């Protein structure tokens, strides 16, 4: 409901992910509750979700419905999270704004005259507007960090190859800097919880190219402000 309201205001959602209710029922039957049990999570447009498109803001990808969830979505579900929406991006994602010819312009919920930043601008707008607690963006040259800054949120670009890539091989670019998926939320604790949940055995098994290094709580606690 919240996401719908925020979307009407700032145009940040590109798609609602179906089967959320079924997934919740499945989770309730599981003996082990994951670290993200029952948390609805928003997902940036280009991350593959089964039965949905990953448009990259480009018309040529509109007909290509994905047959599989990308590894990160599988791991989120394994940890009890419920991916519930896909969020807007600029066309090709190489832009610090958030607009494309398919879904239009996303506005900053704090000031409708301003951009939410990009390329994870839909995520920034939805979370800052109160429509999502936790989201997955991606960052090559600021695509998590900029919208987090513009929308007053916390965001993390993890070290390269720490998390399995989005699974959109046909619409990605070869870049000198490793693009990374990462969490966006309103506080650092949520980012830490998300990273801890993602860096699990399930991730390392599904994508053997990711180094099997679990989240180190000590490193975070040592990171006292200067």
Automatic annotation (TrEMBL):
Bilayer-spanning residue ranges: none
One term of GO molecular function: fatty acid amide hydrolase activity
Span of domain Amidase: 5-212
Top-rank taxon: Eukaryota
PROSITE patterns noted in UniProt: AMIDASES
InterPro entries for this protein: Amidase_CS, Amidase_dom, AS_sf, Endocannabinoid_amidase
Annotated keywords: Hydrolase
SUPFAM superfamilies: Amidase signature (AS) enzymes
Record GO biological process: fatty acid catabolic process
Sequence similarity: Belongs to the amidase family.
Protein's name according to its UniProt entry: VDHAP protein
